Amino acid sequence: MADLGSFALLAGLVVCVYGVVAAVIGIRTRERRFVETSLRAVRAWAALMVLASGTLMFALVTRHFRLEFVAAVTSRDLPLVYTVAAFWGGHAGSLLLWALILGLYGIVILRGLRSSPQMYAPVALVLLVTAGFFTWLLAFTSNPFTVMQIPPPDGRGLNPLLKNPWMSIHPPTLYLGFVGMTVPFALAVAGVLTGLTAEWIKLARRWMMIAWIFLTLGLLFGAKWSYVVLGWGGYWAWDPVENAALMPWLTSTAFLHSIQVQERRGLLGAWNVSLMIISFVLAIFGTFLTRSGVMSSVHAFADSSIGVYFLIFLGLVLASSGWLLLARWDRFRQGGSLDALLSRESAFLLNNLVLVAAAFVIFTGTVFPIIAEAFTGDRINVGPPYFNQVMAPLVILLLVLMGTAPLLAWRKADAQSFGRAVSAPAAVAILAGLGFAALGVRSPGALAVLALGLFVAGAVAVELLHGVRILRTHGEPAAVAVGRLLLNNRRRYGGYVVHLGILLILTGVTMSSAYATQVQVTLRPGEQTSLGGYTLRYHDAQAWRLPGLQITSTTVSVSTGPRPLGLLRPQHVYHEVQDQATSEIALRSTWWNDLYLVLVGVSPDRRATFRIIVNPLVTWIWFGGGVILTGTLIALVPATRRRDVPEVRRDVAVPAGAKAQ
Amino acid sequence: MWRCPPVRRRNDPGPAPWHRRRAVPLPALAAVLAFGRHLTVTIVRFLLGIVSVLCAVTPAWADQHTGIRVGLLLMAIDAQPDHVRISEALRVTNAGDPRRVSVEISLPPRAQYVTFHRGVVSPVQTEHGFGGTIPLRRGITEVAYSYAIPTGSREAIVRVLPFDVERMEVVGRGAQVRLAVVAGRELTSVIVGGEVLPRWEIRGVRAGQPVVVELVGLPVTSRWWPSGAAGGLAVILALGLLKGVTSASQKP
Amino acid sequence: MSPARRLAIGITVLAIAMGIIAYNGIRSATVYYLTPTEFTRRPDIQTARVRLAGTVSPGSVRRANGHVAGFTIGDETTSIAVRYDGPLPDLFAEGREVLVEGRLDSDGVMNATQVITTHPTGYKEKSKP
Predict the structure, then answer these.
(1) Does residue B74 sit in helix, strand or coil?
(2) Which of A30, A64, A149, A578 to mutate to test the interface with B (most CBs of B within 10 A)?
(3) Is residue A651 included in any domain, yes or no?
(4) Same structural domain for residues C51 and C26?
(5) A-contacting residues in C 68-127 (Cβ below 8 Å)
(6) Do the chains contact at B230 and A33, CB–CB below 8 Å?
(7) Residue C124 above 50 pLDDT?
(8) B63 in a structural domain
(9) Is the dihedral of CA A491, A495, A496, A501 positive or negative?
């Protein structure tokens, strides 16, 4: 069985090399045969990755401890669900997951390219080069099929931290996002070589959106896991691994906006291709940071040589795509130029700049320790205050843009009509700001986010109302008009729903950061304490054993005033096999706030020490994620008829008939 | 001539987390582990017959001072792909009162997954093997343990024991496995369930005397076929590509 | 002035502003990252906020009220006592690698504000008091 998997990997590498050569010849000679065989190579490689993955999964489920990987991540008592999740519970398996997802994406994109056969060869080339790199890593540096001479009687088991549904689903979702960036990158290379047609724009947008939504979900799942499992009361720590996933998210968000400018006006082509390339580079960089542990490595913390290979690959990708871009720079001199500062194009351009700047400052903060060490010899660490400080003004700017861009016309917006449109939401925002300040919200960051959030929501409402009004001039009832508006403009209104989701998340993040309260107390059984309006009474502590586990549990009853709210049971669990203790927090979530309870310790005389945290509005973050998913799904539904409701006119200087070529 | 070797202390604080298993009567235990139940019954009957004859005939080799002797050491070698699982079973006869003896037994280098089935109390890993205490009853005490050694297709296993053994028997199992004990003699093989189990014995092993067991024909998993097949695929694809390029260049 | 020129000026202003914020941010948020041995050899940063990387010395964990109140972090040659009051990350155990962030007190004991452990497959875990 191990042999079958090893064969699949080696054969996959052979097929990749073959496919790369065939694709290059196909590009040079333009002969169909070579292009077709390179496509077959992609499909064959994907099939081999499926074979390898199937073999590994089978070995995991049957506890084939002869394989070193299986012995390292599973044990006989591991439930089936986590045995499956153990596939990505180690380096080698997660690399294989990366390859498998790439194979599946490859098959689907090749089908989608049927209407643009001239893009086949470049896309196949990019896919096969990336595939070859990862297959080579798998076959020669982290082979999941290495065999031990003597199989152990039982495996080491999955780390207890990973035995959590959020952590089971977080890596595959995140990888669907990371790997997904390969397809837009392949399209970018194809576009530079064969031209940025309307069909190209459609494909690029669609595939970037798919990768983007998975990346969004992956980030949120990771944050949720961090919140409920790690037990420090937070969900985002500006950790290098977290930053690594956030950066491509920012650049792909920028792309999803600025591609609309290219669609309509043919501008920002160079920006878009660059954003696609950068997103892919950052996704590979993210995989590298997560897998090689280079950022957290210091002296005793081991880092593997796999990092060097990633860096070489990254360098080659950057160099070759940069060279390609510069060599064909004249292709992007199309369409025209920016007509006016007050226009939607310039708003999108500014949006690009802000998001790229955000990615850049995060990148700087993340890699600064390495650079500083090279120059000064001192190893340093850049902490959350830096990131919070630099992101705050950028987030404010983004919120302003989110609110004003929908109200700006294309080409050149008339200042007066813009002022009229923006006045209502702005007024609401200012009033709301004053209102919140009066209610006791004093932190300027929180006030700004709340007020601007309402501004953005107001702008969306203004847009919706105008659209409905136009439809109603044709004599339709309001409800039907709203429905038709949403149905016929899925992209635009799906996007507005996503914006609302972002608002919810930002509100939740701001308020929970600014107004979280916590306290640490030691209580005797029967004693109580209070925080944030909750009264907590500690009743008792119990200890018991389960197979392989020793559990210390405490019972705490919660009430607000006289009204009882239920029991919470924070625990400590000691895992015997792994010789490791985990802390199971107790969480009570409402829409208003979260009551977060951590058991710090229990003394022999039953006095228990608790850390109690009250986090406002955290549920809004997870709910906002669901809203984003909904909005994206709305936007992704393909347009069956090309009948867009006419754009809301704002005294545009150019006749409505002019469209992008 | 049983001698109590001094127990060497380890630097590490605690014992290695080794397994303990439930006891099964010796020497069937080692055989059961190596061979399965049916086979075991046959071997046990065969061996017990020999042992009892020997015990009656051979002069007592017990150390006059300690009153112990090891009548039989049965070494059962089960050949697995890339490794062998060796089960050793000792029959210790104690003529005197029940007492506890400290013992340190060395194992072949690279021995792993040592499992104690019977007879050794609080085993501790040492540099060359393990140490522990054997509580001896009046009469016969059984000691059994097993371990695994990674092997190639041929292997020479050297056993050095800290006590005298009247008779040491080595049984092997595995298709195409042949074994030989240096300075020993071959006994008639046992055939059970279609499998031929070679048997060798050596008598009068002194404490510290190395016994060399040579194994030939051990199963090894060959790792060449994945690379070979991939290489073959590479050749085929390269030829195909070459053909395609040359025929293309021939076009006007 | 063409819109493009105005945009370029605006962007430059933005970039300078960001640069200033970033510079200040880094200055205030950087923390030295050392082993205990290196830390004892650096008299210039004895009062700065540092992160120490080492292992939890076996037998050094001190408990009070049923939870850990302090321990000693060490490498091959040096150990430093740590005071910490709060929930520990799940992977914390004696003999394990750990990162401790905090400031050295006047009595030579490190007041830890954060304790971080590393997961064998690379995931990190942290806790703060």
Answers:
(1) strand
(2) A149
(3) no
(4) no
(5) 68, 75, 85-93, 97, 101, 118-127
(6) no
(7) no
(8) yes
(9) positive
Residues A395 and A491 reside in one and the same domain: yes
Whether residues C17 and C46 fall in one domain: no
Listed in order, strand segments (DSSP E) in B95-210 are 99-106, 112-118, 121-125, 129-136, 139-150, 154-159, 165-173, 178-181, 185-192, 195-205
CA-CA-CA-CA torsion for A263, A360, A221, A311, nearest 10 degrees? 100
- Residue A655's pLDDT is 42
pLDDT of residue B8: 39
| Chain A CB within 8 Å of residue B227 CB | yes
Give the SS3 label for residue B28: helix
Alpha-carbon span B24 to B17, nearest angstrom: 22
Neighbours of B127 (CB within 10 A): 9
Q: Find chain A residues with C-beta within 8 A of B248's C-beta.
A: 29, 31, 33-34
Domain that residue B249 falls in: 225-252
Task: Give how far B226 is from chain A: nearest CA, Å.
Answer: 4
Domain that holds residue A587: 517-618
Q: List phi, psi (to 5°) of C24.
A: -60, -40
**What is the pTM assigned to this prediction?**
0.83
Q: Say if residue A50 is in the same domain as residue A33.
A: yes
Show residues of chain A in contact with C67, CB under 8 Å. 600-603, 609
- Rounded to 5 degrees, what are φ and ψ at A309? -65, -40
Q: Which ipTM value was assigned to this complex?
A: 0.77
What digits encode the pLDDT tens for the residues A521-554? Answer: 999 999 999 998 899 999 989 999 988 788 999 9
- Say if residues C50 and C32 touch (Cβ distance below 8 Å): yes
Structure tokens, A178: 């990371």
Contact A259, A276 (CB under 8 A): no
Could you tell me which residues are beta bridge partners of residue A616? A593
Q: Is residue C86 within 8 Å of A231, Cβ to Cβ?
A: no
Rounded Cα–Cα distance for residues A15 and B239 (Å): 13
Instruction: Say if the Cβ atoms of B233 and A37 lie within 8 Å.
Output: no
Which residues in chain A have their CB less than 8 angstroms from residue C4's CB? 337-338
Three-state DSSP state, C109:
coil
* Dihedral, B155, B161, B166, B169 alpha carbons, nearest 10: -20
Same domain, C116 and C87: yes
What's the gap in Å between the CA of A126 and the closest CA on chain B? 19
Domain shared by B90 and B158, yes or no: yes
Whether the CB-CB separation of A246 and A362 falls below 8 Å is answered with: yes
Q: What is the pLDDT of residues B54-83, one digit of tens each?
A: 655 544 443 333 456 789 999 999 998 889
What's the rounded Cα separation, in Å, for the pair A503 and A454?
Answer: 9
Number of domains in chain B: 2
Residues A6 and A99 in one domain: yes
Q: Which residues of chain A have pLDDT under 70?
A: 292-305, 333-336, 639-661
B85: nearest Cα among B123, B52, B111: B111
Q: Which residues does chain A have within 8 Å of residue C34's beta carbon, measured at their own beta carbons? A: 379
DSSP H or E run through B215 = strand B211-216
Strand partners, A552: A543, A572
* Domain match, A192 and A137 both: no
> Quick check: bond before B27 cis, omega within 30?
yes
Return the pLDDT at B59. Answer: 46
